[in-house]
Amino acid sequence: MSARAEDVPDLVIRSRRAVLPGKEGPAAVAVRDGKIVGMHAHDARLNAAEQVDLGDVALLPGLVDTHVHVNEPGRTHWEGFASATRAAAAGGVTTIVDMPLNSLPPTVNAEALAVKRSAADGRCAVDVAFWGGAIPGNVADLRALHEAGVRGFKCFLSPSGVEEFPPLDTDGLRAAMVEIASFDGLLVVHAEDPALLADPVGPRYPEFLDSRPGEAERRAVERVAALAAETGVRAHILHVSSALCLEPLARARRQGIRLTAETCPHYLTLVAEEVPEGATQFKCCPPIRAAANRDELWRGLADGVLGCVVSDHSPSTPDLKVPDFAAAWGGISSLQLGLTAVWTEAARRGYGLGDVVRWMATSPAELAGLRGKGAIVEGADADLVAFDADAVHTVDVARLHHRNPVTPYHGRTLTGMVRTTWLRGRAVGKDFGGVLL
């Protein structure tokens, strides 16, 4: 008996290297109306309007990047929804969550969220969700932001770099946690203790690195853990760069405190010893640290103390990256390159594509409560990536979709290349088919 027309898939994608939950191997994935409707044997005979056979090219779920500074509205000359989401798609990222600062106005109340949504509407090549912000004086705005759909709230414990998004002191942090816990929301924290930070004493990278010691991160993580235990809030530590954070994070988990953490591609792939003189495209806060520290971060991932790897894409115009580490803007531009950079190092260290998918797709989706994202399973959105894991390429900043040609990966040889990205079953091209989540 022939299948009913409404049951025939729109698309079937076959790969001998499909990365599914808990396994990797041959499979055929059937898609209809933007959803995954069936998981089949690789050689299953299936009718479909379109058939794609990837051969040995891997099939991954679309990545979920929960740490992206899009900067629109207000600083769209730094980045914007059109350029950022095109870069995301080119890098295999099908969902981003936009940070609340560096845009004007910052997303610290429901009215500002509406302004940002309006700026993003119709300009997104991939799906976009939003974080709200927790700053001094806006506790009364947090519930309305939550009800308007933000995925959680970002705060700083040290200066953010922009005056319109000031940090929280201990009392402010506790007040925000109490309010966010009252509706079981999520607080995501830039954790550096300002008392241990100093102004760089010179223009060189070692001087900048010394000004932001790992102990500042550790001390801040311990404060967040203590207050999370006190208030019962669900909290998450952003962009862990120092391995000194691993012990207090592991201890908090053993104690049942609802505290998770992430790190970023640049902390896993770059090292302080190799930062060239004046190369401020490497500057970020917290900073890239030594090679031995990098090894410890990889162990933190393997142990599950660090659960997510996300970009912290924080771009700027080239003029802000002056060749002086004391004066340059701090932020790494890497949204398009995260998957291939992490895979290059992960493969060298013996990890598999399943590990990378867990760190860069499944766990970030779970963190932000993005159902139907981050895994190739029946019923999920058909957000998929054809990833040639063996392809070797040299990064040319001029070929990236980022608005400004600044990245520390320029000239680096990386392994792995995104061949095609599908958003809800449609290959992402020049159209803006993303939705606002």
UniProtKB/TrEMBL annotation:
The protein's matches in SUPFAM superfamilies, at most eight in alphabetical order, are given as: Composite domain of metallo-dependent hydrolases, Metallo-dependent hydrolases
User: Cell wall biogenesis/degradation as a keyword?
Assistant: no
Q: What is its EC number?
A: 3.5.2.5
Cytoplasm listed as a keyword: no
Q: Which UniProt keywords apply?
A: Hydrolase, Metal-binding, Zinc
Xref: InterPro entries: Allantoinase, Amidohydro-rel, DHOase/Allantoinase_Hydrolase, Metal-dep_hydrolase_composite, Metal_Hydrolase
**Transmembrane residue ranges:** none
Q: Which GO terms describe its molecular function?
A: allantoinase activity
What's its top-level EC category?
hydrolase
* Amidohydrolase-related domain location: 59-428
What cofactor does this one take? Answer: Zn(2+)
Pathway(s) the chain acts in: Nitrogen metabolism; (S)-allantoin degradation; allantoate from (S)-allantoin: step 1/1
Instruction: Give the family per the record.
Output: Belongs to the metallo-dependent hydrolases superfamily. Allantoinase family.
Q: Assembly and partners? A: Homotetramer.
Mind telling me what this protein is named? allantoinase
